[in-house]
Amino acid sequence: MATCEVCGNDYWMAFEVRTVNGATHTFDSFECAIQKMAPICEHCQTKIVGHGVEVSGRFFCCAHCARAVEGPQGAEVRDAVGARPA
User: Fold this and answer.
1) Quick one: which of 75, 79, 4, 66 has its CA closest to 37?
2) Per the confidence metrics, is the pTM higher than 0.85?
3) DSSP 3-40
4) Of 39, 29, 36, 35, nearest to 15 (Cα)?
5) CA distances (Å), 32 to each of 12, 20, 21, 40, 45, in order?
6) Are the beta carbons of 60 and 42 closer than 8 angstroms?
7) Which long-range contacts (C-beta less than 8 Å, at least 24 apart) are formed by 52-55?
8) Percent of the chain clearing pLDDT 70 (strictly above)
């Protein structure tokens, strides 16, 4: 069994996440993995679980948050690209 590095649970179905820089993390749930690894929105401080938005090297959970903080570059950010479905 392996021990989750967030909650300490020793669980037979624990899993490892390997990062680009070679670090290995062990978790017993996606909840713990998100708690440890998800970036935080620089505007509203929520955990970014989905795609999020990056502007000038800063991470935001959505285009609204990017526009609120990033001025001219943030003003160009949209959550969806293309024509709206009919």
Assistant:
1) 4
2) no
3) E-TTT--EETT-EEEE-TTS-EEEESSHHHHHHHH--B
4) 29
5) 15, 19, 20, 15, 17
6) yes
7) 53/77, 53/79
8) 91
